[in-house]
Amino acid sequence: MFGFVVDIYDALLPTWRLSVAGQYALLVAAILCTAWGVTLSVRANFVVAPPDGMVQTISRVSGRDYGLVKNLFDLTMVGITLAMCLGTGSPLYGLGVGTVLSAILNGRLICLFEMALNRAAKGHRADDASVRC
Fold first, then answer.
1. 24, part of any domain
2. pLDDT of residue 29
3. 20 to 30 A from 59, CA-CA: which of 41, 43, 89, 122?
4. Could you tell me if residue 56 is inside a domain?
5. How far is CA 33 from CA 18, 29, 88, 109, in A?
6. Half-sphere exposure of 122 (CA within 13 A, CB side)
7. Beta strand segments in the chain, E
8. pLDDT, position 5
């Protein structure tokens, strides 16, 4: 299913002529959809992508919130990529605004979605601290 959706996007997106504002709006929508999808996949214990599986394992073993571990993991990967590119004199392939914003925002959004789903499922008050962002 995922591959099918990617094929559709690959067919449609190159034909879109978006302004810079439109590109950023699409980026925000993509980050929101990604965070929501990861939240649901992890909550349902679906088989997740290998990086998310590593984050899930680190989160469980350390007892830390998944969203926080996701942020630290993604930002660490961005840092490693940056260090390797600078260290080898390579161009910064794949390390643009979208990658950096995704690394910063996905974990925070996952945490917020987790809090909202926990409150909805358990009827907790807004000051519930079972998930900390």
1. yes
2. 93
3. 122
4. yes
5. 19, 6, 34, 10
6. 14
7. none
8. 73
Q: What is the pLDDT of residue 7?
A: 81
Total number of domains constituting the chain: 1
* Tokens representing residue 17 in the block: 């002529």
Tell me what pLDDT residue 25 has: 93
Give the domain extent around 75. 2-122
Q: By C-alpha distance, which of 32, 106, 16, 19 is closest to 8? A: 16
* Mean local confidence (pLDDT), 3-28: 82
Domain annotation covers residue 127: no
Give the amino acid at 65. Answer: D
Q: What is the pLDDT of residues 47-81, one digit of tens each?
A: 778 888 899 999 999 999 999 999 999 999 999 99
| Residue that is written with structure tokens 């926990």 in the block | 118
Number of Cβ atoms within 10 Å of the Cβ of 107? 25
* Residue the block writes with tokens 């925002």: 105
Q: What is the pLDDT of residue 74?
A: 95
Residue 79: inside a domain: yes
C-alpha closest to that of 67 among 34, 37, 109: 109
Please list, in sequence order, all residues whose beta carbon lies within 8 angstroms of the beta carbon of residue 55, skipping any fewer than 6 positions away. Answer: 66, 69, 70, 73
pLDDT band for position 124 (cuts 50, 70, 90): low
State which amino acid sits at residue 49.
A
